[in-house]
User: Fold these one by one.
Assistant:
Number 1:
Amino acid sequence: MAGSAVRRTRFAPSPTGLLHLGHAYAALVAEREASPGQFLLRIEDIDRDRCRAEYETAIHEDLAWLGLDWQRPVMRQSDRMAAYRDALARLAPYSYPCRCRRGDIRAALSAPQEGALPAGPDGLVYPGTCRGRSLSEAGPDDVIRLDVARAFDALGIDRIGFRDGAIMPGHDHVLTRDQFLDGIGDVILSRRGMGTSYHLAVVVDDAAQRITVVTRGKDLFDSSYIHVILQKLLQLPTPLYHHHRLIRDDAGKRLAKRDDARAIRHYREDGATPQDIRRMVGF
Ligand code: GLU
């Protein structure tokens, strides 16, 4: 359990490109927040179409070059499908199959609505068209969604929250049931052909790795509410959260993997030292 236990943090990149300055910062924050505990690495490679072995190798090389050290063996999500399947089965009482495609969702939302469509951490807030379908009707191309209202009812709660160490020390961030339904909605637990989703995999793995402090960018702030409700449904401990600032380019845009010029290894090839990288991200 979090609290008395040793602090354990993780850096959890996806091997879909070279690590950039934003990743360097995230990894350094995770390592700092672990101190004097344990810093772990987790390879988030559930999206087999986008992940590549050479990027995974590059992650190890770049982090080692930066001077980081982590516990071995390294967890890889592609090795964890059985654990996700078990968790999905445990969530069956609060889940349903959904066959809506993006166009269906957009059309359903546009009908009663004028102007901007409601969007949450995963894009459009699902309008619930397939809610009520039973898992026995699931087709091979369906996704599995969490029935959020049913989940809140089953838990007997009307709000969900977490403690964030970075934004407001010691302050609990809370979302009511209605805010969750309106702003996040019935999130996907298992994507088409994937057997899991980012949210489900992260929750299962943070618990398996006994992570006590989840450090991640502020862009994932709302996702943390999703993770807390999944932790409650799966009876897993809720870690502390530390949402850190994002590294932006000169135009103020958040760095993404496609900004290849900002890749750590390109700075390195240009003669930068690990200390230069640390300084560039404000360490
Ligand atoms: N894999 C996620 C990413 O690359 C971060 C993992 C997490 O903090 O949940 O942004």
Number 2:
Amino acid sequence: MAPFQNNPIGVIDSGVGGISVLKCIRAHLPHENLIYVADSKFAPYGEKTSEEITRRVLTVFDFLNKQEVKSVVVACNTATAASIQIVREKFDYPIIGMEPAVKPASLMSKNKIVGVLATSGTLLSAKFSALLEHHGNDIHFITQPCFGLVELVEQGDTESPELITLLKKYIDPLLKEEIDTLVLGCTHYSFLKKTIKKLMPEYIKIVDTGDAVSNYLKLVLVEKNMLNQNAKPGTTDFWTNSLDQNADKVISKLWGDNSKSFNFKGLWF
Ligand code: DGL
């Protein structure tokens, strides 16, 4: 058995949004030991420069490298757009990134009108422009940066009146344009899926990428003979640098039904 097979997998985000991806990873890979790192003290990343985001991402990788991770999932669209190339050049284990589900949405849409909710950092990135160019030929994409949503999800808010007012402000213009498919291009927004559904006609399809990314991670680990060989369930450790007294409660709420099976490790930096 290769010695690294039982090493942990790191999953990172600007904050708690990547927990939506972590849940999918846990479902796909029950025997893996997972280490989640939330950089909440520096969230949101959405309006930071690529250089600032890359500095933060490298700091988080540094922490994970000390724990001898065998792979890392950058469970953040904004961080992926800013820095995936740099970390892939620097580290030689598999690094999986996230990008808004433009391709699946373009295949799903019947009327060819697709809305994309994401951070301004993601929408303004060269990576996102290239993605639209590649998959968007006959599709009308309407992009909407959603200032303020990440901050609310960071507090564990997924359905307050304040959040709903903000969501309506972002979604109503997309409804006027008659979208039939909506891409959630930020991992924090996946926690708002239920609330968003209530604000739109039922026929509009909502697409995010947690499941596809987890599936891809599994394929990569199988292909490289890197799957954990333990028969017992894997551990899930949460690290955050949030200064919020309730950080553990927010994480527990978002982690949901699985909350019994996680270790809150506290401050990493
Ligand atoms: N979860 C991050 C993403 O997927 C949020 C970015 C932010 O912190 O603004 O883009």
